[in-house]
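queue> pop job 88
queue> type: inverse folding (structure -> sequence)
queue> payload:
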């Protein structure tokens, strides 16, 4: 878990198809929103009392887990408090071993 005095920020790279556990569901977390790399819109992925917004997501022990990551899961995740202030920002990059292998051959 990240310990920050103000807004926490992190960058993570995860292989496509794997799961990503985000330790972001704090006691003062109201919701988690996501903006993927090709959109300007923020999409709510988790909200207190309503839970997750996708079958691909699960919640356990204060972690929001994204199962079987895809390219559309890449982007920025923001954790907002009850005043809609940003508590945590996580930037996620999803990579494929096929792309890495191809790039290393060039």
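queue> result:
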């Amino acid at each position: 878990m990240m310990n920050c005095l103000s807004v926490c920020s992190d960058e993570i790279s995860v292989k496509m198809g794997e799961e990503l556990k985000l330790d972001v569901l704090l006691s003062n977390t109201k919701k988690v929103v996501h903006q993927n790399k090709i959109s300007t819109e923020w999409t709510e992925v988790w909200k207190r009392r309503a839970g997750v917004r996708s079958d691909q997501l699960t919640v356990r022990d204060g972690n929001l887990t994204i199962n079987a990551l895809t390219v559309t899961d890449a982007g920025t995740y923001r954790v907002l408090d009850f005043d809609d202030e940003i508590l945590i920002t996580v930037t996620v990059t999803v990579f494929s071993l096929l792309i890495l292998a191809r790039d290393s051959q060039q």
